[in-house]
Specification:
RNA-binding, alpha+beta, 1065 residues, 4-stranded antiparallel sheet, 18% strand
Length: 1065
RNA sequence: GGGCGAUUGGCUCAGUUGGUUAGAGCGCCGCCCUUACAAGGCGGAUGUCACAGGUUCGAGUCCUGUAUCGCCCACCA
């Protein structure tokens, strides 16, 4: 045989990757083009951020996508998986700025916009390369020819087009929004770049005089604040509209809880509630009258005089003011506090910003009015407001101003008292300075209609979310219909395509609309709108840049900000396919087939993709959304680099292989929302796994408990630590996957060992399973084929419902237990018996081939490797005549998906076979228990009804080959050996002849234990069956089953009693 | 504060619409390097299914409450 090859005992996953991944790529097997003869199946990757390397969550996410894609490809779909990366504006720019600061001591302003953006592109290039490298190591079958990036020209065109149409439809407007402002870096920061720190602070109680108090009115209103400096920007004071009702409500709630706690006897809680109630009742006495009076005054339109600023501000009612807290009323600074911002909008009061971007106070405090609700344009009515901040404070930073203002307030007799108070202060992660809420111009998308369309898509079932419960997250968020702020004060991203007009002489003059009309007469790609508030034009351009002098006599300046990253990600399913061009791809592949992602971006991303898809393409972007679990560490904490509990998939792949990693994560993909993955260090010296604890994971060096050597961690900074070998972070969980692959490898090796014997035979045209008639098949053949088909059906249907974990576990059990441990072990006897060999070989080849195909989506490398080897030794394996007539695929990737075309599922055989398995197991158990030497053959007899005997007898040779046990007698009259060890099962009892081998005491002990156990079960059953309610109400099927089971238990008991009697003799 | 979820052997998790004696991987114990596989084979031990009620003939599974843990969102003048 010329093709003889020796296969190593262990599966070499490294060389399998080296061999097949580049081969797949070079042969264009990942590449998809529209093919009218096939149905499309499309997935767009959730584009990983170019901020850093991929983590386990990505490994999971991409494995699950690849499983779908590979299965569908084999099922004959034209499967396309579009890969790509996301520019992740804030995070990426932050990373590069940090690097710039740390390595060169420069800020972005030092090097300027163009240079900064260039540097971020370089960063992006290097990380994109790394990410793609990781994905390839994971062996995913993305169409790399279609790689996209959210800032590339194709995506940019889609972004510009969307912005332009939204602008045209009036869906985009400019408003005001509070952003988290870092005064040191002079930039907006995102919520996740903020840490809350507990600081010691104070409550300052201030009194604001009432203007022109009437008889019975209060003279002044007391408010408490932790930030007295913001009082200069106060534009109203709020109190609760119905303080009595609110207090009643609270009181009732507490009383109810109290009653419940009392009833349940929870004393600690009770005491707490009682204290709470007491406080509340006291408060009623001290504050209620005042608060009611205030509400009355507010409704009467009373105004207050804001101290220091000497500005009139209204007293308003708003439910934000909690009668049970503080003084019961609250000063409102809409431009400097997120809650006050909301109150301010509701109360329609001016928004006064008293801070400049550098954190100093401004003299010309800006006056803003939010246009969403059309409340008064205060600028016109109250010009005096431009002098809100007294001259002497100007230039002072917010914190300095606090001291001065407090001193002034005290001097003016406004300060009532000061209390110590601990409070949470938001601190910038990057600059470590206090974050100030800052009122900024912002572009918004009107969400009312868009959100509704996206909600409808889910409620009417056009978009289905798996698991279903996540639909609630989606709908709840969308139902708020909050307008979407789309501007970001960054340089990295799609620049907002809006141009402002500046007068050449620097004045505030604006051109007339006629001038615009003339200048852009033949340009359908330019639209404009008049901003009433800012008294200026907004000019929107669909593509490219608007020349500075495009409007004769005026200068055009583009908006500095860029679009929210999600604005471009939202278009991902159609932008990657070429929209707005009506490309072949868009027509063929859109809508995509499923979106697979994690739950934290259901709102930010999924919802927005649905609404832009509907808006731009008139169709949902995908009919299915599958939300997979989040991977946590063993403490249930999110994995992150900053904690040191993150795993680099490459480390796992290096140690266990991509197949093992994929199998491991697919095994975890249940429908629960989190899964835990215990994380350990691997000692680089001795290879021992060192448990990672919360304590050692933050240290720069860790000592291996086994070899006592130190290794370094990611925290190593000092030279002495860095000099140590690095301990990688991995998880033993992947051993399971590696071991399984090795098992499959060896089963294949075994199969091929026999298939190779006669290459001529396996190459014959009729060498498939198909031509074998049922008569030629042995019972075990029919059994394994039936089981295979049952499993294949379950697996296929399960994957289509995203039930990954169950599918993978099912197939795992089938492969290992049924195929390897049962079928192959049985087949050994036949494979070694010349006249029985041919059929057994065919069945082995057929089942193995089917298994490889079923497994391929999960573990692509090993399956390709074995499939290719099989192609040499059994080229016709598993193929039907129809298959043979076609050109054979060159890779398992394109092999036809296994389906049971011959209706091989036979539940009777499957059930029958269980008897064989049970008897075999019982014999083996007896041998093990009685310490019968491995090679010593024993005899055994089985007493059972004739129909059971008919199943057992044909298996006689296998008992010998698999358990060194010779079946001597089997049937209703079989006689138990005199000195035997016995076992019972449903409908049968067996005795292993242990003459000269038996440990009688051990046997008696076991039988007595068994007797007790049976007696227990019988008692339980009898009690159940004597219960008339049970026999009357339970379904007949269940009752019959119970009766049969009881009869069987009794028979078993009799057999055990008999065995005991024999042994005692 | 709102929403969602978890609690099952030492560890990490399965457990379909309630229905015989609750499973897996790892770990543990015993025997075996048997010619596919020691990353393996055969056998074994280990569970009051968090707690308290309820519905039901029957509850790990459904309902209510409690405790603990976690995730997401919003936030404490």
């Amino acid at each position: 045989m010329s093709e003889t090859f020796e296969l190593p005992k262990q599966y070499d996953f490294h060389s399998a990757w080296e061999k097949w991944y580049p081969w797949w790529e070079e042969n264009g097997l990942f590449h998809s083009t529209p093919n009218p003869d096939k149905k499309p199946f499309t997935i767009v990757i959730p584009p990983p951020n170019v901020t850093g390397a991929l983590h386990m969550g990505h490994a999971l996410n991409n494995t699950l996508q690849d499983i779908q894609i590979r299965m569908k490809r084999m099922q004959g779909f034209e499967a396309l998986w579009v890969p790509g990366t996301d520019h992740a504006g804030i995070a990426t720019q932050a990373m590069v700025e940090k690097k710039l600061r740390e390595e060169e001591g420069l800020t972005r302003n030092d090097i300027g916009r163009d240079a900064m953006v260039k540097r971020i592109w370089d960063w992006k290039d290097s990380f994109e390369k790394r990410i793609i490298g990781q994905l390839k190591k994971l062996s995913v079958s993305c169409d790399w020819d279609r790689l996209r990036f959210t800032l590339d020209p194709v995506c940019a065109r889609a972004v510009r087009n969307t912005f332009f149409t939204f602008f045209e439809k009036g869906l985009i407007y400019r408003g005001k929004k509070l952003v988290n402002w870092d005064t040191a870096l002079q930039t907006a920061v995102s919520d996740d770049e903020i840490n809350n720190e507990t600081h010691d602070g104070h409550f300052w109680y201030l009194k604001y005089p009432v203007i022109d108090p009437q008889e019975g009115d209060l003279e002044y209103v007391t408010v408490a604040t932790t930030r007295p400096e913001t009082m200069l920007g106060d534009t109203c004071v709020a109190c609760h509209p119905e303080p009595r009702k609110q207090l009643d409500l609270l009181e009732n709630a507490i009383r109810e809880e109290l009653a419940a706690a009392e009833a349940a006897g929870r004393d600690a809680e009770k005491a707490e509630l009682e204290a709470k109630l007491e406080t509340l009742l006291k408060r009623r006495e001290t504050h209620l009258e005042l608060l009611e009076k205030l509400a009355e005054m507010a409704k009467a339109g009373k105004k207050l005089m804001l101290p220091l600023a000497n500005r009139e501000i209204p007293l308003v009612t708003d439910i934000w003011a909690k009668p049970e807290m503080g003084t019961g009323c609250v000063k409102i600074t809409p431009a400097h506090d997120p809650n006050d911002f909301e109150v301010g909008k509701r109360a329609m009061v001016p928004f006064i910003s008293i801070m400049k971007k550098d954190g100093s106070l401004t003299a010309e405090a800006s006056v803003y009015a939010w246009d969403g609700r059309k409340f008064a344009n205060v600028t016109a009515e109250e010009p005096a407001l431009s002098r809100t901040v007294p001259e002497k404070y100007v230039g002072m930073k917010m914190l300095e101003a606090r001291e001065v203002i407090v001193a002034d307030l005290e001097a003016a007799g406004i300060l009532l008292k000061v209390e110590d108070h601990q409070h949470e202060v938001p601190v910038s992660d990057r600059s470590k300075t206090v974050i100030e809420p800052f009122l900024n111009d912002q572009w918004f998308v009107r969400m009312a209609d868009l959100a509704q369309s996206a909600m409808d898509a889910v409620t009417d079932g056009r978009v289905q979310i798996f698991p279903e419960r996540y639909a609630k997250t989606y709908l709840d968020w969308l139902s708020e219909k909050r307008d979407w702020p789309i501007g970001r004060q960054l340089w990295w991203g799609h620049r907002i395509p809006i141009w402002y007009v500046r007068a050449a002489d620097g004045s505030e003059k604006m051109p007339t609309e006629d001038e615009l009309k003339t200048a852009f007469a033949d340009r359908s790609d330019v639209k404009w709108a008049w901003d009433e508030e800012g008294k200026e034009w907004w000019i929107c351009l669909q593509d490219g840049e608007l020349a500075k002098d495009a409007l004769p006599g005026w200068e055009l300046v583009q908006d500095d900000d860029v679009l929210d990253t999600w604005f471009s990600s939202a278009l991902w399913p159609h932008s990657t396919l070429g929209w707005p061009e009506q490309t072949e791809e868009l027509k063929y592949y859109y809508p995509t087939s499923v979106l697979i992602t994690s739950r934290d971006i259901i709102t930010l991303w999924v919802a927005r993709m649905v609404l832009t898809g509907l808006q731009n393409c008139g169709e949902i972007p995908f009919p299915h959304v599958y939300i997979h679990p989040k991977i946590l560490d063993k403490y249930g904490e999110t994995m992150s680099k900053s904690k040191g509990n993150g795993i680099d998939p490459l480390d796992v792949i290096e140690k266990y292989g991509a197949d093992a990693l994929r199998l491991g994560v697919a095994w975890l993909a249940t429908d629960s929302q989190d899964v835990r993955l215990p994380v350990d260090f691997e000692c680089p010296h001795c290879g021992e796994s060192v448990e990672q604890t919360k304590e050692n994971r933050i240290r720069p060096r860790v000592k291996c408990p086994k070899c006592k050597e130190f290794f370094s961690t990611q925290w190593a900074k000092k030279e002495e630590d860095l000099a140590l070998k690095r301990g990688t972070v991995i998880s033993e969980r992947f051993e399971m996957g590696r071991n399984f692959c090795n098992k499959l490898w060896n089963a294949s090796r075994f199969a091929m060992m026999y298939l190779m014997e006669d290459l001529e035979e396996v190459s014959r045209p009729d060498y498939t399973l198909e031509p074998i008639s049922d008569d030629e098949l042995f019972m075990e053949d029919k059994w394994i084929l039936s089981r295979l088909c049952t499993m294949a059906k379950m697996f296929t249907e399960g994957i289509e419902k995203y039930d990954y974990a169950a599918c993978v576990r099912t197939l795992y059990d089938f492969t290992w237990d049924e195929f390897c441990s049962n079928y192959i072990e049985i087949a050994k006897y036949r494979l070694q018996t010349p006249e029985l060999k041919p059929v057994a070989k065919r069945v082995v080849a057929f089942v193995l081939d089917a298994l490889l195909k079923l497994w391929h989506p999960v573990i692509p490398l090993i399956t390709e490797e074995v499939w290719q080897l099989m192609a040499k030794v059994a080229p016709k394996r598993g193929l039907t005549a129809e298959d043979l007539a076609r050109e054979q695929p060159e890779s398992i990737m394109n092999a036809p998906w296994f389906v049971d075309t011959a209706n091989r599922i036979d539940p009777t055989i499957e059930a029958q076979f269980v008897v064989f398995q049970d008897v075999l197991k019982a014999v083996r158990e007896i041998r093990a228990r009685q310490n019968v030497p491995v090679k010593q053959e024993v005899k055994f007899a089985v007493k059972c009804p004739a129909e059971i005997a008919a199943l057992i007898l044909p298996m006689k040779p296998y008992f010998t080959s698999m358990a060194q046990a010779v079946l001597t007698e089997c049937g209703p009259d079989a006689k138990m050996p005199e000195l035997s060890s016995n076992a019972t099962g449903a409908n049968w009892e067996l005795g292993v002849d242990l003459e000269g081998l038996i440990d009688v005491e051990a046997e008696l002990k076991k039988n007595r234990t068994q007797r007790e156990k049976l007696l227990g079960f019988i008692a339980g059953k009898e009690k159940k069956l004597s219960n008339e309610a049970f026999t009357a109400k339970a379904p007949a099927k269940v009752v019959d089953a119970e009766r049969a089971s009881l009869a069987d238990l009794k028979a078993q008991l009799a057999a055990v009693e008999e065995a005991i009697a024999r042994l005692e003799r």
